[in-house]
């Protein structure tokens, strides 16, 4: 954390509809990962500012919860159009602060935009249930009521998509929201929140604070916050889940991954190799759904040389030039990835492709690491056991599909997986026996569209309900049941009944 030149723009807080300069004395630079240019300074909000943001959300809840469904939905209809109209500028900001290519930045925004579109259909998603004559003349119906103030804590790797997983659905359900984006790249998130206000979200309904551990802990502890949505690493997500649930809140934490792509020898070779490379090295491997482990089954093990040959041809550069992969998000991330590769080699892995020495013309200071492939890897090596979150493909051998399934199920993470095959029977068995949230069959990054919900198994998720789709409507609401009887005349009063029966 550094304090920089005062001429550099500062990132504002949003409290009760006002964009404010933080009074914090602790600030951090937002850097362009391709150049190290300082783009802005982001504050670590004070405890008082966090409390003000929550108080604003609490105050706005009283009227927002009673705002008609149609009025809420129309805000998201407007927001989706505003996001489309501003796509190029949003993508340029995202690329500048995060590093991913412009095309991939548009993909990041588009996958969030799909959730905004879904929020615009909140009417049918929020319908309750009704049953007539559950007892003589008695009817019961249920409604989904908003919870109150909800908070969202997001990671650096999808600074558009993941905030859009959270606040649109929470607000469409009638809640108010406090968003805390990643302190590494908050600029595109700020632009999206500005568009949300322009679309008509009233003052106090959406608030934004910045910071790290202290701000997150304050949100977990605050008595007026009813639910926390978190996406990020397993270490922090586990902490957030424990702290928030101990304070009586609902929590959903989507966390780290080690996604295995299993390749059977009957797969379409050319198509499969291309898909593996895109899924392992796209966004410089900084996707929670990256295919970071490739399991070559039986004769498919002979494909390694071709995989390395194709990976070697992938271009690396600044995201704005649309290469195949851009830089890692920070110098620290690059150092960590380099040390993981070195540790892999020390522990006996073979460097089938070494991208460590990459140089990018015109960008001497970028956090670049070229596509790297480590083969002969086995469980127990650090590169297998830990999430690397960089452009490093781990290649593991398995003799049979059964052996591959056992390997995937023995890994502590269960975020995503994919099988490449032309056999329907093999795909059917894989899907049924694999204990992973997102399963792709000849689809390398099987992130569902918002008609479904994102999920996760074992160490990749804490909490029962996932982001977006129908599950998040249940997460952001509580069910109320109303059981009612209307007497037609005063004569049908009946007698005192001390049983629990409704009749
Ligand atoms: P991170 O856990 O470091 O940070 C996530 C958020 O937590 C940030 O807002 C950060 O400010 C905050 N934070 C950081 N340290 C904290 C602490 N000690 N106490 C409280 N809060 C803290 O994650 P990241 O590096 O930004 O993102 C990468 C990770 O996110 C990877 O592990 C990736 O797999 C995971 N991820 C998971 C999914 C998913 O859906 N499962 C999606 C995207 C990213």
Automatic annotation (TrEMBL):
Identify the keywords attached in UniProt to this record, alphabetized: NAD, Oxidoreductase
Similarity-based family:
Belongs to the aldehyde dehydrogenase family.
Instruction: Check the record and name the PROSITE patterns matching this protein.
Output: ALDEHYDE_DEHYDR_CYS
Domain of life of the organism encoding this protein? Bacteria
Q: Which InterPro entries match?
A: Ald_DH/histidinol_DH, Ald_DH_C, Ald_DH_CS_CYS, Ald_DH_N, Aldehyde_DH_dom, MeMal-semiAld_DH
The Aldehyde dehydrogenase domain sits at: 19-482
Q: Supply the name of the protein.
A: methylmalonate-semialdehyde dehydrogenase (CoA acylating)
Look up the EC number in the record and give it. 1.2.1.27
Broad enzyme group: oxidoreductase
Concerning NCBIfam families, the annotation shows: MMSDH
């Amino acid at each position: 954390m550094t304090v920089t030149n005062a001429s550099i723009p500062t990132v504002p807080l949003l409290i009760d509809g006002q964009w404010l300069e933080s009074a914090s004395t602790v600030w951090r630079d937002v850097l362009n990962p391709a150049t190290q240019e300082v783009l802005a300074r982001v504050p670590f909000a004070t405890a008082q500012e966090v409390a003000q943001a929550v108080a604003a959300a609490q105050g706005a809840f009283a009227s927002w919860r009673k705002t008609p469904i149609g009025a809420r939905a129309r805000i998201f209809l407007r927001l989706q159009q505003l996001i489309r109209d501003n796509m190029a500028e949003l993508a340029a900001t995202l690329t500048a602060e995060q590093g991913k290519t412009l095309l991939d930045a548009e993909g990041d925004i588009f996958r969030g935009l799909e959730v905004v579109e879904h929020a615009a259909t909140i009417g049918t998603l929020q319908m309750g249930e009704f049953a007539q004559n559950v007892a003589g003349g008695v009817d019961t119906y249920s409604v989904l009521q908003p919870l109150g103030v909800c908070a969202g804590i997001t990671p650096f790797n999808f600074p558009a998509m993941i905030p859009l997983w959270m606040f649109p659905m929470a607000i469409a359900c009638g809640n108010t929201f406090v968003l805390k984006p990643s302190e590494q790249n908050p600029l595109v998130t700020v632009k999206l929140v500005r568009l949300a206000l322009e679309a008509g979200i009233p003052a106090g309904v959406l608030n934004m604070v910045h910071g790290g551990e202290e701000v997150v802990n304050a949100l977990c502890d605050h008595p007026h916050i009813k639910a926390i949505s978190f996406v990020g690493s397993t270490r922090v997500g586990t902490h957030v889940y424990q702290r928030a649930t101990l304070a009586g809140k609902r929590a959903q934490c989507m966390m780290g991954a080690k996604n295995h792509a299993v390749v059977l020898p009957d797969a379409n070779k050319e198509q499969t190799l291309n898909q593996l490379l895109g899924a392992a090295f796209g966004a410089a491997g900084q996707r929670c759904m990256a295919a970071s482990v490739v399991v070559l089954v039986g004769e498919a093990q002979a494909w390694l040389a071709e995989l390395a040959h194709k990976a070697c041809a992938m271009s690396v550069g600044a995201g704005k030039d649309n290469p195949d992969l851009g830089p890692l998000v920070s110098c620290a991330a690059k150092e960590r990835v380099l040390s993981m590769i070195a540790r892999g080699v020390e522990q006996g892995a073979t460097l089938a492709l070494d991208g460590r020495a990459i140089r990018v013309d015109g960008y001497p200071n970028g956090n670049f690491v070229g596509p790297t492939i480590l083969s002969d890897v086995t469980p127990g090596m650090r590169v297998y056991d830990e999430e690397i979150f960089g452009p490093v493909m781990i290649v593991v051998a398995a003799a049979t599909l059964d052996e591959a399934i056992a390997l995937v199920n023995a890994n502590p993470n269960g975020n995503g997986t994919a099988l490449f095959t032309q056999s329907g029977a093999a795909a059917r068995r894989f899907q049924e026996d694999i204990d992973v949230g997102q399963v792709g069959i000849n689809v390398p990054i099987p992130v569902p569209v918002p008609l479904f919900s994102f999920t996760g198994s074992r160490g990749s998720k804490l909490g029962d309900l996932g982001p977006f789709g129908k599950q998040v409507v249940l997460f952001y609401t509580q069910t109320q049941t109303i059981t009612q009887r209307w007497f037609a005349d005063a004569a049908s009063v009946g007698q005192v009944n001390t049983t629990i029966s409704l009749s």
